[in-house]
Amino acid sequence: MKPVAMKRELMIYFIVLCFTIIIGVLFVYSSLFASELSENINGPDIKFRTHLLGIAIGFFAGFIGFTGADFFIRNKYFMWAMYAFMLGILILALVSKPVNEVHRWFNIGSFQVQPSEYVKFILPAFISFYFLTYVKEKQNIINSFFLPMGLCGIPTVLVFLEPDLSTSAVLFFISFFVCVFNIKNKKIGLVYFIFIFTLIAGAVLFKDQIINNDKFLKPYQLERLAQTEDFQTEQALRALQNGGLLGTAPFGGTMKYNVPVSFSDFIIAVIGEEWGKLGVFVVISLFFFLASQLTRLAYRTSDQAVFSYCGAVSLWLVLQVSINAMVGLGVKFIPVTGVTLPLMSYGTNSMVSSIAALGIGMGLVFSSIKKKEEVHSDEQRQDI
Q1: How many CA atoms lie within 13 A of 379 on its CB side?
Q2: Closest CA to 354 of 114, 35, 165
Q3: What is the dihedral of CA 155, 159, 161, 165, to 10 degrees?
Q4: 249: which strand partners?
Q5: Which of 74-88, 99-113, 333-347 shows the lowest per-residue confidence on average (mean pLDDT)?
Q6: Which pLDDT belongs to residue 226?
Q7: Which residues is 113 bridged to in the sheet?
Q8: Rounded to whole angstroms, how far apart are CA atoms 229 and 224?
Q9: In sequence order, which ranges of 216-340 are alpha helices (DSSP H)?
Q10: Residue 373 buriedness (CB in 10 A; 0-12 / 13-18 / 19+)
Q11: Cα(21)–Cα(33) distance, rounded to whole angstroms?
Q12: What distance in Å separates the CA atoms of residue 357 and residue 353, rounded to the nearest whole number?
């Protein structure tokens, strides 16, 4: 694909991204004011302004990521500093004062930082850098399996200890696949898939034993895995059923009033009641466009580091959107996880990290396009 055409597609991508965020603002606005009446949440207007502030900060972070993306992922000192920073903020959250008996946040002034959200894009960037810098063509079981999985495992375990089971699971799958994206040795690739198959098979076969005898998970996590808590799911299903195919109307519907914290974990229920099943399909399609288009553009750059990072971010989007859709639609074998819908759910940290991650991805693609243009210009000058 010619650089001009790729730039045009990148612009279309940015427009779709902005459109997705704007739609999310409407759903959050509707949900917040419904929650004020049903759950006595005070100050929905303050929460809404906080949500808009999160979007503004996200676009600023995305702009910084876009302009400096190529430097970020290729500079050895910067990437190791980011890895140390990532571990530092995770440890800081663990030693900070707990909120509702969990250590997922720490405060900077009035702003509450959730480190695990930022790990979702720092870790893929670091692993892409790791393979680009230290592995390249000489792949063996040590530098291509044990070392990268160890580097991924440290932050994943720290998130698990907060405790945050759902996010640690998301991080594990992102880490696993970003490593696989960089594997060229078929034997090592086979080791990865045997590893993941063994873990999944073990989790399925011994699920009951894990739930009954686990010493690491909290009671509420065990209840979610055992699916003994289904109140939120039932209320979400009723809201979706009330919406039917085309929905009640924008800002309409009454069943969403009964969905706890619908503006965050169950925003899909608000979408389904107001816009119907067709609206849910449109929203999911927007996310799959953002994921597939970013991966496609990254692949066409022919830059392994760009493809690795963008593929990981796309997987993150697809994974969290799929979890939200299945939970909201009441799929029985998916427990309520507390995973937000990227770019749409209420949550400053989630919004900032999502936009920043996509900004870096677009920046990497744009940087590769510019390099191709420079090479093309040099070739033209040589021909003259």
Answers
A1: 6
A2: 114
A3: -130
A4: none
A5: 333-347
A6: 52
A7: 106
A8: 6
A9: 219-226, 231-243, 267-300, 304-328
A10: middle
A11: 19
A12: 6
Angle in degrees, 0-180, between the axes of helices 267-300 and 3-39, rounded to the nearest 10: 160
What is the average pLDDT value for the chain, to the nearest integer?
84
Cα 210–Cα 317–Cα 370 angle in degrees, nearest 5: 140
Q: Please check whether residue 201 is in contact with residue 351, taking contact to mean a CB–CB distance below 8 angstroms.
A: no
Q: Say which amino acid occupies 127.
A: I
Alpha-carbon distance of 333 to 336, in angstroms, equals 10
For tokens 């530092």, the residue is 88
Average pLDDT over residues 210-224: 55
pLDDT at 153: 93
Structure-block tokens of residue 193? 């898939």
Residue pointed to by tokens 């309520």: 336
What tokens appear for 263 in the block? 């503006």
pLDDT above 90 (res 322): no
Which residues, other chains included, contact 82 with Cβ-Cβ below 8 Å and sequence gap of 6+? 72, 122, 125, 126
Query: In which residue are the tokens 């375990």 written?
Result: 157
**Other CB atoms within 10 Å distance of the CB of residue 152:** 23
Distances in Å between the alpha carbon of 253 and those of 147, 228, 263, 268?
A: 52, 28, 15, 14
Among 298, 308, 292, 293, which residue's Cα sits nearest to residue 363?
298
Provide the token pair at 371.
């390099």
Q: Helices marked H in 42-75 — which ranges? A: 44-74
Q: Is there a contact between 276 and 245 (Cβ–Cβ < 8 Å)?
A: yes
The label of the residue with tokens 């010619």 reads 2
Q: Write the pLDDT tens digit of every residue in 252-261.
A: 777 777 777 7
Q: Residue 126: pLDDT above 90?
A: yes
Question: In the block, which residue shows the tokens 């790990």?
Answer: 119
| Total count of residues recorded for the chain | 384
Round the CA-based radius of gyration of the chain to a whole number and report it.
Answer: 22
**pLDDT attached to residue 248:** 86
- Cβ atoms of 259 and 232 closer than 8 Å: yes
